[in-house]
Here is the input.
Amino acid sequence: MMTKNKIGYYLRKCLAVVPSVPVCALGVDFFVKAGWGTDPLTMWELALSSTFNISLGMASLTFEGGIFVLFFFLNRKLVNFGSFAYCFGIGPCLDLMSPVVNAVIPGSPSVAVKILCIIIGTALVCLALAYYIPMDFGYQTSDILTLSLGEIIHKGYGISLTIVYAILFSAAWLLGGAWGIGTLVAIFGYGPIVDQLMKVLTPFSKWVAEGKASKLNSEMVNN
Here is the structure.
């Protein structure tokens, strides 16, 4: 039976995870605006979008929703509210944030603006990931795959993410997905950057998600 303390604990963690979803989506949309390739997960979803003539948000919702259902049965410990928020929230947020980015940067951006978009996109995506991952409250698609791989090969997040991105890149490339400098930045940069940011953000993330409820968390895990 859920007590008021436990309900409050879960509600706080849910509310803590939610803001990272639109921040991550905004970062992805900046990458898309640059037109120099995106992270391999988005590259894969863009390839699906083009192949089936649907929006990026719908492609994201379909693919990530499918992974959510699959891992709910295969590796459920990695699936929680955070998984739900990302798998079913990132797609709509991508469609919602895209007009905002286009309004801020209308038309075709210059080379300098494209570089700025890559930098802003990388910062937003990596900050969002480094913020929500330490909460240990479910993970988005690429992180579910990354952490599952990490368990198998006994490697950390950064190395595992690079491998997962390389696989997704190969699959997207076979479908004719467009790639570029931004894709290479994501493949080789996201993992190490998130690793370093988590060292700084983990105490803050845990405080936001748990606060004084951290003791309750330990008791719940032990039970």
Q: What stands out?
A: The CA atoms of residues 107 and 168 lie 29 Å apart. The chain has ten helices and no strands. The mean pLDDT is 85.
